[in-house]
Amino acid sequence: MKVCAIVGSVNRKELEAYKDGKFSSALKSRLYSRLESLILEENVGHFLCGMSAGPEMLASEAILELKKKYPRISLESVIPYEAQAARWNEELRDRYFNIAACCDQETMLQKHYSPDCLDRQDLYMIGKADIVLFARPHPARRSAKELSSARELGKTVADIVYP
Fold first, then answer.
1. Which one of 31, 47, 94, 96 has the fewest beta carbons within 10 angstroms of its own beta carbon?
2. Distance CA 51, CA 55 (A)
3. Torsion over CA of 126, 94, 101 and 128, rounded to 10 degrees?
């Protein structure tokens, strides 16, 4: 079975829209469909997800729903640093910890925040994956480097550009 990493990025304005639920259901539906096609068409059995608020959390929730239909799949949360969700509002923290409790595996990359921890998280997931699914609002600066790294490593790249 193949491994798929979900790499998502949002800017501050889009994060606020996510918190308000303005694009959550439509994006989650698109992610669900794309993830299911990866399971069925690409034989993906293990997913790596960074758990950031926005498309990564939505993808994690979609994967947990897909696990009911495809119990052979697994979800691994790849957490950049221990206090990732500490400053989030209560609703987002609850979602984060509910997802984390349902993950099959958790990988903590470092104890404390560092300026490069999110880049290191993405590169870690890309290195472990066969397929990298980029979920991004537009060709974002942060994902451009990761997209280039995935291609250089010969990874299969899938893309969901939203909204």
1. 94
2. 9
3. 0
CB 96 within 8 A of CB 85: yes
- Structure tokens belonging to residue 153: 């490593």
> Rounded mean pLDDT of 76-96?
91
Nearest alpha-carbon partner for 20 in 110, 92, 80, 128: 92
Cα–Cα distance between 73 and 54 in angstroms, integer?
22
Tell me the mean pLDDT in the region 108-117.
95
pLDDT digits over 7-57, tens only?
986 655 566 656 555 557 778 888 999 999 999 999 999 999 998 888 898
Instruction: Give dist(CA 61, CA 81) in Å, integer.
Output: 20
The edge-to-edge listing of strands for the beta sheet with 105-108 is 105-108, 74-79, 44-49, 2-8, 131-136, 156-161
SS3 state of residue 76 = strand
Nearest Cα to Cα of residue 6 among 162, 143, 152, 153: 143
Higher-confidence position of 75 and 153: 75
Neighbours of 114 (CB within 10 A): 13
